[in-house]
Structure formats: C-alpha cells, structure tokens
Write a structure and sequence with these properties.
Elements (H helix, E strand, L loop, with lengths): L4 E7 L3 E12 L2 E13 L12 H19 L5 E5 L6 E10 L9 H11 L8 E13 L2 E4 L9 E12 H13 L3 E6 L1 H9 L2 H6 L1 E6 L4 E7 L2 E8 L3 H12 L3 H11 L12 E3 L1 H6 L8 E3 H25 L9 E5 L8 H9 L3 E3 L6 E2 L10 H14 L21 H6 L3
Parallel strand pairs: 1-4, 3-17, 4-9, 10-15, 15-16
Antiparallel strand pairs: 1-2, 2-3, 5-8, 6-7, 6-8, 10-11, 11-12, 13-14
Length: about 425
C-alpha cells in the first residue's frame, strides 16, 4: 500500500495543507482516490511565501506530517511540493533549432534544443531558470503550430514562457521539507497545476484564467488556444483584508480574522447589509473586555470590498499585459482560502467585467470532503498530478487530453538543490 500513496504539500504563510491520494486498480483501470486531507497552522513562513525561520517552519511541518501519518496509518516518505513566491519572475523568449534528421521529421530532441536555445538570455542575479512552458511553434514560417512532433521542416522556432525563481528561497523551502525526513518528487506553481488538472480542454482552448487567493499572495495563470500564455504571483492576499478590518474596527488581528470569517461580505450592497452585528461571543472567545460589542455590517463590508476590489484590479493589470483584460471568453475561476469570502465572486465579476466561478476538481473520486474545499485545491492538485505521473498510459483516461508533460522531471535548479 505504501507505494500507492501520493502526497501533495502546500506550505502557506498561514497554514500547511497536505492531501493524501491513493492509486487503485479497479476493473482493469487505474484510478485515483483521495483518502486524507489535513492542515496545521504554519509558522516560519512570512509574507509573500518567504521562509523566515527554518526551525519554526520545520516544527509546523512536523506537526502536520504527524497528523497525516496518523490518518493513513503508514509513514509518508515523499511529497509533491507547491512553490508560490511573489518574487517569481518570467520571461517570454524565442529559441531556434535546425531539424536534425535527414528527412526533416521533428522529434522531441529538436524541441528540447529549441527550448534550450531560448534559455540563453541573461538571467537576473540570484535567480535561476526553473520551468519552461512552450507557447507556440513556428516551422519554416508556418506559424502557430501547436504540436510539431512528426511534422517535417528545416527550421523549428519556439516561443517559450520561462519561469525563474530566487535560488535562496527555493533552497530554504526544500531544506524545510528535507529536515522532516521527506523526499521531494517535484515542485510546481499552484495556479498552473490547478488549471491543467481541473479545467476542461475546451475552457483552456477558448481562454480562461485561474486566480488563487492565498493568505499573503494571489497567483494567477492565463490560458488561451490550449496553452499557458501568462502567469504571475502578486504580493497581496486575504490577510490584507484582515489587517484592514483590524485597523478599521480598532481591534486585535485575531479578532479581526474571526469577524471576517463569520460576518465578512465583499458586497457592500448585499441584502440585510444595514443590520448591525453582535460580536459579543467573539469578544468572549478572545477574552477581550469591550463594551462596544456592536459592529456596523455596512461599514465592515465597505472595508472588505475596498481591498477585494484592489486585489482584482491588480489581477486585471496582469490580464492587460497579455491583452486579455475583459476578453477571456470562459472567464475566471477562483480558488484558495481567500475565495471563501462571501460574495467575492460578485465583486470579482464587477471589477473584472468577466464571468466568475469557483474552481472544482473533476475526474477524481474524493472520499474526504475537506479536500474539495477551495483552500485545499493546491495540495489536492499536487497529489492528483503525482498519481497521474506514476501511471502508465492506461491511466490517461483519468485526466484530460490537454494534460501533457505539465511538469518535466526535475530541471536544472531542482537537480542542484537536491542532495546527491
């Protein structure tokens, strides 16, 4: 059973989430079953996903891992890990390769050489190239080729979206995971993983974006014509909403978080918004003595709405970079703990002028309800990817056709930071 267990790990600034999946062979078909999901408050992870204390982060991860191992009853040896940092950089570049075969037929080695040539640009100090995402191909001036394998030509050109990460931050995150005795099977960007796994081929073809709202970052991935055309991580998330509430209501941050979760609404014009809120029970939980136990629901909503609008205005600025502002036909899918806020989809729709819905996992049997929650989707997508990558070709039916080599096997940076 141990070899059939695949684990997705999401180390966030507010919580660590871990999802456990199991590969099963039912009726001559390989399937994925999600059998566990646990979370634990994180420490040692600062704003924007930065590890600021190895010891604290190790302690938090150890506690989360212990919960997970008790749940499944066996030790966990390795994980598929999420990396989400606001200082991730990207570059859209082109590479060229001359077809190597005498008959001019293109194979994977030609594509690899074209991509390698694209990576020859100057990389910023302290950064290293992490993953590459081909956007489109050109064969002898035949533009917008989607899959050149098997085609014939002389000159292959590729346009590539290249991601770069801070070596120190990746090293620190890997060190935390290794300190608790875990191996790392692969590392990924959350919004890209979720988009590739939980959207349909048709949605990715027409034009769509996934926006993942975490505690201190918001990551996004934009797709069109079946390929990734843009991604980024913004240094803002749901904790900024909490901080605004704490300032506006002049209350401790822990109380502000509880008020947000229980009474928060991002639409200041929603029904019953004029009613006041009695926070006596929350004051008692926080052991705060305050005679002012009534909060204006309207005022609270206005505070929240202003920050949520700011988040989606920043998202729209990213869409503008690739000329997709207000023109993504499928619209935007929301995920992450920040998307749990009441009426956030309504505010997003108004700000972005696009259809907005919540991302949901497809093609997967999930026995654990918690794993379906928006705040667990990153860890869930990693576990599902891990299962899929270990299947043989018979397992291809569990995931859409557009899921092709989302993550290459560990690339240059990952090879350097793993122990030999």
């Amino acid at each position: 059973m141990k070899n059939d267990i695949i684990v997705g790990l999401d180390i966030g600034s507010s919580a660590i989430k871990l999802v456990i999946a199991q590969k099963k062979f039912d009726f001559n078909e390989e399937k994925i079953h999600v059998i566990g999901a646990v979370s634990h408050p994180s420490s040692g992870i600062g704003k924007n996903g930065v590890v600021n204390s190895i010891e604290d982060a190790v302690s938090s991860l150890s506690a989360c891992l212990e919960k997970a191992e008790r749940l499944v009853g066996i030790p966990i040896s390795s994980v598929f890990l999420s990396f989400n940092h606001s200082k991730i950089r990207y570059e859209r570049v082109k590479g060229v390769a001359i077809i190597s075969k005498n008959d001019g037929e293109i194979d994977q080695s030609d594509i690899d050489r074209a991509i390698d040539s694209a990576k020859s640009f100057p990389v910023p100090n302290n950064y290293e190239i992490f993953k590459t995402f081909p956007v489109k191909y050109n064969i002898d001036n035949n533009e917008d080729v989607k899959d050149p394998i098997g085609m014939r030509g002389i000159r292959l050109e590729v346009e590539v979206l290249v991601s770069m990460v801070l070596s120190s931050q990746m090293n620190n995150l890997v060190k935390v995971v290794q300190r608790v005795g875990l191996g790392i099977d692969d590392v990924s960007f959350p919004s890209i993983t979720m988009a590739e796994l939980f959207l349909t081929s048709k949605e990715i073809e027409l034009g769509v974006a996934v926006v993942d709202i975490g505690a201190t970052t918001t990551s996004l991935a934009v797709y069109e014509d079946g390929v990734l055309i843009h991604f980024n991580t913004l240094p803002i998330g749901s904790e900024y909403i909490t901080a605004d509430i704490a300032l506006g209501l002049k209350c401790p941050i822990t109380l502000a978080e509880k008020i947000k979760l229980e009474f928060g609404d991002s639409d200041s014009n929603s029904p019953n918004i004029k009613e006041d809120i009695d926070i006596s029970s929350l004051l008692k939980e926080e052991r705060i003595e305050d005679e002012n136990n009534i909060v204006s629901r309207k005022y609270l909503s206005e505070i929240i709405e202003a920050r949520v609008e700011e988040i989606f205005k920043l998202v729209d600025e990213e869409f503008k970079k690739v000329n997709r502002s207000k023109i993504l036909p499928v619209g935007v899918f929301l995920s992450g703990g920040g998307s749990l806020l009441k009426n956030i989809s309504k505010t997003a729709k108004k700000t972005l002028s696009l259809p907005v819905a919540f991302l949901e996992p497809k093609y997967i049997k999930i026995e654990v309800d918690k794993a379906n929650r928006p705040d667990f989707l990153t860890a869930l997508s990693l576990a599902v990817y891990g299962c899929y990558s270990s299947f043989d070709h018979r397992g291809n039916n569990i995931i859409k056709d557009n899921f092709k080599d989302l993550f290459s096997k560990a690339q240059n940076l990952f090879k350097k930071i793993m122990p030999k």
